[in-house]
């Protein structure tokens, strides 16, 4: 999820100022990663520079006056294009994949890596399941999303565990580019 697209989506609902945009982002998408005000205003400046949003007035407040922003037609087009483009993950799966391979390369226990990650994922799933009872619909949906991903990662951990011996032999046996150099392979 990109911050610029989030701000454009919020502006698409109607003109507003940076403080309200930050509050809305934190409320709906922040979950432990709240935006800093500086990030909101630097993003708004880039959106304005790129013609995707623009200042449309000043809102008087108890404190400092607040610049009100609105999405432009180009910004609405950019948002539509982003929303309609499916996200397809690419590249190597994750840091966990890298840790498993590198543990094997280094002659360390990839089983320990997988077991530690499994325990962390199961603990996180328990936290999310408990939190779903107290959260609003947005929080529950975000929790469901994370639980589904953790569940998929747990299935991968089981698959990787079943293949560790074969992968270790390939990594150490000289037929793979990750094979460490030994006296025989130098």
UniProtKB/TrEMBL annotation:
InterPro entries: Tscrpt_reg_PadR_N (IPR005149), WH-like_DNA-bd_sf (IPR036388), WH_DNA-bd_sf (IPR036390). Pfam families: PadR. Residues 7-80 form the Transcription regulator PadR N-terminal domain. This is Helix-turn-helix transcriptional regulator.
């Amino acid at each position: 999820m990109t911050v610029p697209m989030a701000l454009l989506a919020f502006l698409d609902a109607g003109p507003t100022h940076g403080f309200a945009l930050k509050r809305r982002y934190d409320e709906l998408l922040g979950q432990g990663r709240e935006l800093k005000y500086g990030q909101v205003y630097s993003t708004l400046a880039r959106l304005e520079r790129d013609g995707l949003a623009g200042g449309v007035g000043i809102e008087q407040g108890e404190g400092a006056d607040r610049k009100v922003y609105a999405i432009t037609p180009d910004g609405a087009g950019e948002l539509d294009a982003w929303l309609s483009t499916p996200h397809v993950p690419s590249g190597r799966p994750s840091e966990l994949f890298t840790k498993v391979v590198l543990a094997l390369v280094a002659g360390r226990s990839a089983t320990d890596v997988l077991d530690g990650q499994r325990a962390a994922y199961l603990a996180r799933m328990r936290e999310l399941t408990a939190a779903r009872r107290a959260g609003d619909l947005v929080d529950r949906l975000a929790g469901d999303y994370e639980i589904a991903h953790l569940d998929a990662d747990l299935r991968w951990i089981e698959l990787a565990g079943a293949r560790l011996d074969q992968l270790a032999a390939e990594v150490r046996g000289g037929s793979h580019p990750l094979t460490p150099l030994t006296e025989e392979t130098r």
